[in-house]
């Protein structure tokens, strides 16, 4: 839908009166310009204005919407949330979709955040979609504890992070019950599937991407403070190399990152300059602490040639 409003990007000195604005699947159009949702850090309504904070620190202001204000804000939040869901690669069945309070733990790029937003439960994950770029997809198979205290559901991960959601009205209790049920169900299904996978030297560890993707998996081999990961997907195979300081933390983050990207493996190795024309991937990296961690540990790749085995041994013994 198109809207007419005043539009300003303060740091650029851009001012447009009675501008034609459109909210699209991938961003916001204004005149001949466009803001991709990958550039958006936060959305905020205030005094019948909408402020769009960008990742580079600039702020776009939409004003003079008149009676269209509520419709503009609702559509903007809806489309931003849908695009965020795309960047989290949500493919499984949605079980519940509620509005509630949330609190996100501190991450490498953001302080602790709390507010109200969409809280969704899928067969294998819990998703928190605030009107900011800090949305998360929490894989239920890697939760350590899920407890409802009053109106607040606390989800503790193996790595220590705690996510809280709650105050969803009558949906709070059933949401908590179904969340616990799905965590158990997904963990059991994943364990059964992993039990059917075989490893081959030098690979000693194994893992799935998404639980429902039964034919796609990965194997890992460890040396001293280094790891080689072989991905088995429908694409051409390659071995990805990593170096780390803490093996336990690296292993947890590796598992979480692989689960987060699903079959979109290129996210874990594309160079920053190669991401320039892939806004959805930039959004995905921004929203996953585990993916950022794994990328920071990257030590290259080994392509499958005649020298693959020798290069792999050299790396693991280095």
Strand neighbour order, sheet with most strands: 4-3-2-1-7-6-5
How would you state the average pLDDT, rounded?
94
% residues in beta strands: 35-45%
The SSE string, one letter per element, is EEEEEEEHEEEEEEEHEEEEHHHEH
Overall form: globular
The total beta strand count reads: 19
Spans with pLDDT under 50 lasting ≥5 residues? none
State the major sheet. Answer: 7 strands, antiparallel
User: Helix content range of the residues, please?
Assistant: 25-40%
Rg, Å, rounded: 22 Å
Give the termini distance in whole angstroms. Answer: 58 Å
| Helix count, DSSP H or I runs of 4 or more residues | 6
Main structural class = alpha+beta
Label this structure with key terms:
318 residues, alpha+beta, seven-stranded antiparallel β-sheet, 26% helix, globular
Could you characterize the architecture of this molecule?
26% of the residues lie in helices and 38% in strands. The protein is α+β, with helices and mostly antiparallel strands and 318 residues long. The strands form three sheets. A seven-stranded antiparallel beta sheet has the order 4-3-2-1-7-6-5, with helices on one face. Strands 11-10-9-8-14-13-12 form a seven-stranded antiparallel beta sheet, sandwiched between helices. A five-stranded antiparallel beta sheet has the order 15-16-17-18-19, sandwiched between helices. The mean pLDDT is 94.
């Amino acid at each position: 839908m198109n809207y007419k409003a005043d539009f300003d990007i303060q740091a650029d000195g851009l001012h447009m009166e009675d501008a034609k604005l459109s909210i699209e699947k991938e961003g916001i159009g204004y005149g001949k310009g466009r803001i991709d949702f990958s550039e958006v850090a936060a959305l905020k309504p205030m005094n019948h204005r909408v402020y769009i904070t960008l990742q580079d620190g600039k702020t776009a202001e939409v004003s003079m919407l008149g009676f269209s204000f509520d419709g503009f804000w609702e559509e903007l939040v809806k489309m931003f949330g849908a695009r965020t869901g795309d960047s989290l690669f949500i493919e499984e069945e949605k079980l519940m979709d509620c509005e509630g309070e949330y609190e996100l733990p501190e991450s490498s790029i953001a302080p602790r955040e709390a507010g109200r937003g969409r809280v969704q439960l899928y067969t294998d994950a819990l998703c928190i979609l605030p009107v900011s770029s800090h949305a998360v997809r929490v894989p239920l198979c890697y939760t350590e504890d899920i407890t409802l205290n009053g109106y607040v559901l606390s989800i503790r991960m193996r790595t220590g992070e705690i996510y809280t959601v709650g105050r969803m009205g009558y949906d709070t209790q059933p949401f908590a019950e179904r969340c616990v049920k799905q965590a158990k169900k997904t963990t059991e299904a994943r364990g059964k599937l992993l039990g059917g996978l075989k490893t081959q030297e030098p690979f000693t560890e194994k893992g799935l991407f998404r639980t429902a993707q039964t034919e796609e998996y990965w194997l890992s081999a460890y040396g001293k403070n280094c790891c080689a990961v072989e991905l088995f997907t429908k694409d051409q195979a390659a071995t990805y190399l990593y170096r780390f300081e803490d093996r336990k933390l690296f292993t947890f983050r590796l598992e979480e990152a692989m689960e987060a990207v699903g079959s979109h493996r290129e996210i874990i190795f594309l160079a920053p300059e190669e991401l320039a024309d892939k806004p959805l991937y930039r959004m995905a990296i921004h929203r996953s602490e585990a993916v950022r961690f794994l990328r920071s540990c990257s030590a290259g790749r080994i392509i499958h040639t005649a020298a693959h085995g020798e290069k792999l041994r050299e790396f693991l013994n280095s």
